[in-house]
Amino acid sequence: MNKGLTASEKARADELDAHARAGRTLPLVFEAPRRGKPPKHWADLAPDERRPAVTAAGLPGFRASQFDAHYYKQANTDPATWTDLPASLRADVAETFFPPLLREVAVQTADEGTTVKTLWRLHDDNLVESVLMEYGVPGKPSSGTGRHRATLCISSQAGCGMACPFCATGQGGLQRNLSAGEIVAQVVAASARVRLSNVVFMGMGEPMANYPAIMAAVRRMVDDIGMSARGITVSTVGLVPRIEKLATEGLPVTLAVSLHAPDDELRDSLVPINTRFKVGQVVDAAYRYFETTGRRVSIEYALIRDVNDQAWRADALADVLTGSGRGAGWVHVNPIPLNPTPGSKWTASRRRDEQEFVRRLNARGIAATIRDTRGQEIDGACGQLAAKQK
Ligand code: SAH
After folding, report:
1. Looking at the predicted structure, is the pLDDT value of residue 119 above 50?
2. Distance from CA of residue 328 to its chain's centroid?
């Protein structure tokens, strides 16, 4: 997939790949490097900022709701096609409020076209990806059964500073935070293809390390696009103060916590943020999120062969989740077979270990379903995004 990559992007991709192969451990990075900001976009504006912005540009205030209708409701990002706007204004409006934030570099499909991965180039040549997965598409058995649903997996940062050793993005380090506009733009681009039922922050980046931008983006999805907050999942390595903050927002988004180990000893190495926030603290914060919002929390658990997939660890996981009188009803575990990164010393669990892991959780009353691994052949599975552009 060299198509469209500049020489410097190719060099960067090679560098990331070499890094992953060497299995190098990276430092944790919380503060994104300050880079040239992406151009300010309509999607960066909160509702109460829009009319003032429009009048400041010399346009009547009512244009703001027209722009909202085109951009958010129709998912039409090109003012040149907006016929209710005088033709003489369209170029200026495009330049002032709708600068292109994402340029499509490559598109790959799998599962009979129902999984679509898009590689985007940002204004400063950073790359991010989003993956659209449709389910229950008639006549496409690989999309699964049930009612038609569409889930978009989006990126919140270019790269990631959380340094998880099994994650391709984590091994490449953090380039920068995405703006709210850049996050929303991924959602709007997919909405132009299909009506989205779910958005998951499980692409590149640690959403809780880019909190103001992801929250602004969530509000646009709910207030402007009209999605249900319940259909939006924020996935985190477990930044406890941010989990606590999320619980105060009054938005019933779904929280997913990437636990991957029930014990601090192992989690310290698999999810390095664990050296700051321990398993017990993360699970406590997740449980309080459930108590405050009534939303069942998802626990992500990548099953790594002979590393974290032992039967006794399933029991330990059950103990941690149900401990302190919490019971089992507040949580849903999503084990996912590891998707090995290039050159990784780790691989996915054996099928029977996977099944035993789930059986043990179920035996303790904990809901657990093996998460599907769609789009594996296009590196569309979570953690694989954008690190490998060859
Ligand atoms: N930073 C956030 C969200 C992005 S990653 C987080 O960590 O939750 C989304 C999920 O994919 C996380 O649960 C992450 O641990 C998982 N993941 C990363 N690399 C993976 C891999 N190689 N195989 C399986 N899951 C992986």
Report:
1. yes
2. 26
